[in-house]
Automatic annotation (TrEMBL):
Keywords: DNA-binding, Transcription, Transcription regulation. Pfam families: TetR_N. SUPFAM superfamilies: Homeodomain-like. This is TetR/AcrR family transcriptional regulator. It comes from Nocardia yunnanensis. Residues 9-69 form the HTH tetR-type domain. It comes from the Bacteria. Residues 32-51 bind DNA. GO terms for molecular function: DNA-binding transcription factor activity; transcription cis-regulatory region binding.
Length: 190
């Protein structure tokens, strides 16, 4: 049996996927590059050769996660009709975000880990820049007011928190408080 050799970009993608899972589970500070390397099936020096430092790898993961949110916002915007109101456009973004991003549980966790690690100057600058870009993109794509976009983001962050906690809509085992929060949430801003 012959093995196909992976290209550098394929191997890099594998390391990013392994890092996403590891950072989602353990956070920035507690995750070791040795663990990421083991998950990716490569050596720890190879991870460092690809990304430089653990921080640079974490920033690459954050870039990928935030790029995914941007991609979903843009795709959600195409689902709105040209004559839809800004609220309807925000709803289209929120629906698409909820159906795709929130179902990939590692992604919301990594985003939240980026916020948690914002005390590190490079990480803080990165996550603030991404957050601002996503906020401005939502305004641009929908024509919504700052107040409407603020509510949209507040609801989205609440949903990310609940996803990170393992609480999802329709979960029969969800505690009553979670069910109450999730009931009719789409009618209130996302």
């Amino acid at each position: 049996m012959t093995r196909t050799r992976m290209t550098a970009s394929e191997r890099s993608a594998e390391v990013l996927a392994a890092a996403t899972t590891a950072f989602a589970e353990s956070g920035y500070a507690a995750t070791k590059t040795d663990d990421i390397a083991r998950r990716a099936g490569v050596s720890q020096p190879y991870v460092i050769r690809l990304f430089g430092t653990k921080q640079q790898l974490f920033l690459a993961v954050l870039d990928q996660v935030c790029g995914r949110i941007e991609e979903l916002f843009r795709a959600g915007a195409t689902q709105a009709a040209p004559d839809d109101s800004p609220k309807d456009r925000l709803d289209a973004l929120g629906t698409h975000f909820g159906e795709h991003f929130l179902t990939e549980s590692a992604l919301p966790r990594v985003f939240l880990q980026g916020i948690a690690a914002a005390g590190e100057p490079a990480i803080g600058a990165n996550i603030r820049e991404h957050f601002g870009q996503l906020y401005n993109l939502a305004k641009e794509l929908t024509g919504a007011t700052p107040s409407e976009v603020r509510r949209f983001f507040a609801t989205g962050m609440l949903l990310m928190d609940l996803t990170a906690l393992g609480v999802t809509e329709g979960d029969a085992a969800a505690p009553p408080w979670a069910t109450e929060i999730l009931t009719n949430l789409g009618e209130e801003g996302i």
